[in-house]
Amino acid sequence: MEDKPRLLSIFNVLSLLLLGVATWMSLYYAPQEAVMGDVQRIFYFHVSAGWVGMFSFFVAVIAGIALLVTKDRRFDVVGMAAVELGLVYILINIITGSIWARPVWNTWWTWDPRLVTATIMELVYLAYIMLRQGIEDPDRRARFGAVYAIVGFISVPLTFLSIRFSRTIHPVIIGANDPSAKGTFDMVGDMKTTFFFSLFTFTILGVTLLWHRIRLGLFAEKVEQLKMKVLS
Amino acid sequence: MTTNLFDIFFLHEGHAAHTTDYMYMGFAVIFGVMLLHIFSLYSRSRNLQKDMALLKDLEAE
Q: Is the model's pLDDT at A194 over the cut of 90?
């Protein structure tokens, strides 16, 4: 693999430091929520992971459009990297949501619009990874990936807006709540600081991991090309 | 003060729920999945480097 850019090394260190501070803020700096107790502290990373996941899927759309316009297969590597990162962080989002729900809603899972749309979103992108593997021709695979990433993105705004436009028990922390929402709370000053710091931390972490994954994808392409050359 | 004690004992108000175990579980999942992903990136990178070295040897022969 090519030498690591200096900026990427800076991002590595920065991500680690920020993650350490964000963890400390979530566990000690932010006050304990008066009703839910300590489990509410998951919220800071739960939302941030959701943000990284959804933003990654958006990056996959941009990469998909760029690929269809330029026919440059490197954008396929970017799209694949973004989808993989999105899948990992949406998985964290779903599992932590379930852990939070157990003491607050008294269940690990309920067929709430937000939970269902988030899971569908995860499955849509999981299918992206699986379906890609069935296509041998790299150009066809790249075009398929681009179109799928663009169409599949419909699931992202659906998930984001599901708690704002449907009857749900999932709380809306920023914006108006449905009266049937359970587990809502008002963020006080230190909670807000921790929340926005966590969002910033996960954004930097997401960019760092995406960069690493793109480099890995480009290197894999090089290995594949050399393999073809040696075999021919 | 009397009202607070009344609320605490009879209405169970003023006390946060004991949910610390769930918090630990949540953070364990967050860091566990993140570490697995990073290890997966590292592992794939190392395998590709081995492949590249092998292919370069084959190409040189």
A: yes
